[in-house]
């Protein structure tokens, strides 16, 4: 177990190193001059040279990379080129906003998807089951920006119940205006719910056909007990890996959803960083996303072992 | 029998064509496929002839008198902020989206198949190394890779398709590797090896045909992901550049006046939705049909 953890965590570190090198290489060939971006069109050659020196852009790329990595290890992510404050300060409030959105989506999607998945698995082949299957397929099919826009049209344009934009003043928490969270959460939930529900349903159907469930039913256990003791724990196993894989999807989804609703989170910050060529900010954001993704996969593997004692993590 | 890279390419191409034909036959056996196939065919027709069939040129302005008009007999789906006909723009937007998405998916499927099958067939240390590289490639959300690569290289159709192709190598390679492992221990593969056939021949003429059902399902999944990716990139402004019409970009631009003129967003949203739903229903139909007992034809 310890060996497993050590190996997996060192693998994550290696992945992050590779990712950071790749990001650095990509940002190196980004078109557009950072100094020009910072100073605007009217900058003189003298000004540009000065800016490059203060930002340290006159040094060769490998030196800058090692310098950056050294800082990251010590917890210093560098300064944002554009906002001139430490990257950590730029990211902190945005990270909190994104986490709030992601947490809401998870809290809504996961329990309801598992519950409905189990129910549909038990009622396999019924009319409700068919209707839910078609509905979930539609939900998976729609890209987040289409779902988001459709929700805006229905709930903002026609019904006028909810705001169409989730923009908030910097420094305020989205929790103070919960209404703006409803549509982004619903949009993110759609795909997540559909994936987890379909997976749970398929697994429940598979487990229902096993010998041990037959035995449990035949020895006269009440159906509720068969489901809770025998079916659900065994059906949850593959579902958990789907939930973890969906973390990656959700990070991509956040980029889109935050931009649909102008919600000030990491995804929106990422696009801003790309558009303004704010390299230190971009690198840190990419590392956060890759790190979260890798960690969620590790959590999935660990919970696998916890749920099924037959699986030995080596 | 000697086989060069050209033969490998033609055998992959013919395998893909055969896969496509069997896809259609399989799809028509389930209700999902019977709804999905016409939707997909409709979009392919739009992609081929949409621009020619459109009532107005997609970039024609009617600024003076028809800005943001609701649906009418003159403009069936209304007009946008420049007075352009929304129907015509939607109809001519299919070409770029579908061709770029298809090119990207095909590239990814072809490369992933070659990588996955060779790695699985070779086995041993090579296989171990290749699969770790694939794992590393998959440890990053594909939208983020596409965003970074396209902002640095510039969003033109070739770069978009190329990026999608590269992003898709790892997932396709994983699937094709595991089905290669299942097939390679079968007797006819041993027979071919004992006959002294070269590896390329064994991989593409002996193993590949036996993995076609798996490849078919994987291919249909990749097509729908590819469309989602291209449409999402368009929405983020990294798709086909204006003034050509791009469904994602149309939706993105329409957000400013979405409360007053929802039809401008609704039409391209419905177009993207029906395309992806069609592809997914088709894929689902094929998957279900494979699980049905084989019918005598």
Question: What is shown here, in short?
Answer:
The complex is a heterodimer of chains A (314) and B (297). Chain A has 314 residues and is mainly alpha-helical.
| CATH topology (level 3) name of chain B | MetI-like fold
Which percent band covers the strand fraction of chain A? under 5%
**Helicity range of the residues of chain B?**
over 70%
- List the uncertain runs of chain B: none
> What structural category do the secondary elements of chain A indicate?
mainly alpha
Poorly predicted runs of chain A = none
Shape of chain B: elongated
In CATH terms, what is the architecture of chain B?
A: Orthogonal Bundle
Most extensive interface, chain pair and sizes: A-B, 43 and 40 residues
* Coarse structural class of chain B: mainly alpha
General shape of chain A = flat
Main beta sheet of chain A, described? none
The radius of gyration computed from the alpha-carbon positions of chain A, rounded to a whole number of angstroms, is 24 Å
Order of helices and strands of chain B: HHHHHHHHHHH
Query: Could you tell me the strand content of chain B as a percent range?
Result: under 5%
Molecular structure report:
- The complex is a heterodimer of chains A (about 325) and B (about 300).
- The radius of gyration of chain A is 24 Å and the shape is flat.
- Chain A has helices at about 1-30, 35-40, 45-55, 60-75, 85-120, 125-140, 145-160, 180-210, 210-220, 225-260, 265-275, 280-305.
- Chain A is mostly helical.
- Chain A is built from twelve helices and no strands.
- Chain B is mostly helical.
- Chain B has a single domain, classed as MetI-like fold, CATH 1.10.3720.10.
- Chain B contains eleven helices and no strands.
- In chain B, helix 3 runs antiparallel to helix 4 (about 125-140), helix 3 packs across helix 9 (about 210-235) and helix 4 (about 125-140) crosses helix 6 (about 155-185).
- The mean pLDDT of chain B is about 80.
- The interface of A and B includes residues 30, 164, 249 and 294 of A.
């Amino acid at each position: 177990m310890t060996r497993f953890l050590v190996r997996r965590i060192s693998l994550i570190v290696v992945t992050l190193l590779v990712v950071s090198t790749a990001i650095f290489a990509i940002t190196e060939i980004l078109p557009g001059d950072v100094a020009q971006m910072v100073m605007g069109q009217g900058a003189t050659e003298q000004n540009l040279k000065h800016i490059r020196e203060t930002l340290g852009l006159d040094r060769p790329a490998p030196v800058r990379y090692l310098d950056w990595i050294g800082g990251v290890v010590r917890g210093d992510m560098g300064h944002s080129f554009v906002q001139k404050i430490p990257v950590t300060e730029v990211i902190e409030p945005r990270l909190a906003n994104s986490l709030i959105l992601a947490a809401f989506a998870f809290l809504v999607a996961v329990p309801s998807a598992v519950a409905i998945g189990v129910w549909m698995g038990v009622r396999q082949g019924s009319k409700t089951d068919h209707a839910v299957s078609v509905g979930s397929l539609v939900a998976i099919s729609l890209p987040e920006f289409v779902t988001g826009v459709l929700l805006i049209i229905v709930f903002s344009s026609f019904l006028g119940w909810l705001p169409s934009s989730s923009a908030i003043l910097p420094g305020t928490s989205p929790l103070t205006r919960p209404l703006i969270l409803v549509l982004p959460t619903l949009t993110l939930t759609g795909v997540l719910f559909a994936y987890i529900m379909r997976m749970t349903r398929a697994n429940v159907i598979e487990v229902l056909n096993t010998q041990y469930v037959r035995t449990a039913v035949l020895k006269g256990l009440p159906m509720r007990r068969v489901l809770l003791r025998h079916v659900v724990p065994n059906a949850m196993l593959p579902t958990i890996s789907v939930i973890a894989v969906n973390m990656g999807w959700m990070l991509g989804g956040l980029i889109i959803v935050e931009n649909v609703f102008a919600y000030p989170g990491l995804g929106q910050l990422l696009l801003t960083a790309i558009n303004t060529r704010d390299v230190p900010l971009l690198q840190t954001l990419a590392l956060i996303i890759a790190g979260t993704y890798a960690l969620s996969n590790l959590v999935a593997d660990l919970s696998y072992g916890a749920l099924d004692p037959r699986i030995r993590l080596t | 029998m000697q086989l060069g890279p050209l033969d490998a390419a033609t055998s992959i191409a013919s395998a893909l064509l055969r896969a496509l034909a069997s896809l259609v036959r399989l799809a028509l056996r389930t209700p999902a496929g019977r709804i999905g196939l016409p939707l997909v065919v409709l979009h392919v027709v739009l992609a081929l002839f949409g621009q020619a069939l459109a009532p107005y040129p997609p970039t024609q302005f009617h600024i003076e008198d028809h800005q943001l008009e609701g649906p009418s007999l003159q403009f069936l789906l209304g007009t946008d902020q420049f007075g352009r006909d929304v129907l015509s723009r939607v109809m001519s937007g299919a070409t770029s989206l579908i061709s770029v998405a298809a090119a990207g998916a095909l590239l990814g499927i072809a490369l992933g198949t070659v990588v996955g099958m060779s790695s699985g067939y070779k086995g041993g240390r090579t296989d171990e190394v290749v699969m770790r590289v694939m794992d590393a490639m998959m440890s990053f959300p594909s939208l983020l890779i596409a965003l970074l690569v396209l902002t640095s290289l510039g969003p033109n159709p070739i770069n978009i398709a190329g990026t999608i192709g590269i992003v898709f190598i790892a997932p396709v390679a994983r699937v094709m590797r595991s089905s290669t492992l299942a097939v390679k221990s079968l007797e006819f593969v041993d027979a071919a090896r004992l006959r002294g056939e070269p590896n390329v021949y064994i991989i593409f003429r002996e193993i590949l045909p036996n993995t076609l059902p798996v490849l078919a399902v994987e291919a249909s999944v990749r097509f729908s992901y590819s469309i989602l990716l291209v449409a999402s990139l368009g929405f983020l402004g990294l798709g086909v550049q204006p003034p050509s019409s791009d469904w994602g970009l149309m939706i993105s631009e329409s957000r400013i006046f979405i409360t007053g003129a929802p039809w401008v967003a609704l039409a391209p949203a419905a177009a993207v939705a029906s395309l992806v739903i069609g592809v997914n229903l088709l894929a689902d139909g094929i998957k279900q049909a494979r699980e049905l007992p084989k019918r005598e034809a």
